[in-house]
């Protein structure tokens, strides 16, 4: 991986999609096929943001996406899905999407972060680093984040706004730049 690139934005900021697009184009490895992994399971913990992004992409006929509302990717199946991707794509560039809660509960940011580094997830088989780049949405929730139902705490409206921004950026990159793996 090249230098660590990083962008953090609030969902209401002007030109947010354009800012994320600029950074994503800067860090993309254009010779590689892009695969998107949307990590979260609305049935287990109300974590619907990333599966919503995956569902929006699939509804637009983007096929190289894993993790939707209907077929979620979570801590129980992430290792299997990740292995499948690595075995079925020729050295893909993987973009992960997920949410996180700040370790410092006095941090009141609710932001979208795009980083030129993997998404880290605690799975049933230990910590895994997934992908080459990651979109993370940081939500400030004052409860113990291990037992939080994010949908219940945050509301669908806020989750929808954040997921729509990430969807628009990924859709533009995948669709308009011919990164789509047509089936």
TrEMBL record:
InterPro entries the UniProt entry points to: Pept_HybD-like_dom_sf, YyaC
Listed SUPFAM superfamilies: HybD-like
Protein name (Swiss-Prot/TrEMBL): Uncharacterized protein
Native source species: Clostridium felsineum
């Amino acid at each position: 991986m090249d230098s660590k690139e990083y962008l953090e934005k609030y969902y209401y900021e002007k030109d947010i999609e354009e800012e994320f697009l600029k950074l994503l184009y800067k860090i993309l490895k254009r010779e590689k096929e892009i695969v998107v992994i949307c990590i979260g399971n609305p049935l287990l913990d109300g974590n619907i943001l990333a599966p919503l992004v995956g569902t929006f992409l699939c509804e637009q006929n983007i096929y190289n996406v894993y993790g939707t509302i209907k077929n979620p990717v979570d801590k129980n199946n992430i290792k299997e899905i990740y292995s499948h991707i690595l075995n079925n794509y020729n050295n893909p560039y993987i973009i992960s999407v997920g949410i996180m809660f700040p370790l410092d509960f006095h941090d009141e940011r609710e932001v979208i972060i795009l980083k030129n580094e993997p998404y880290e997830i605690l799975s049933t088989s230990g910590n895994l680093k997934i992908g080459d780049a990651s979109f993370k949405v940081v939500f400030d929730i004052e409860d113990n984040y291990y037992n939080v139902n994010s949908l219940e705490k945050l509301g669908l409206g806020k989750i929808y706004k954040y997921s729509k921004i990430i969807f628009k950026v990924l859709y533009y990159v995948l669709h308009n730049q011919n990164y789509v793996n047509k089936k």
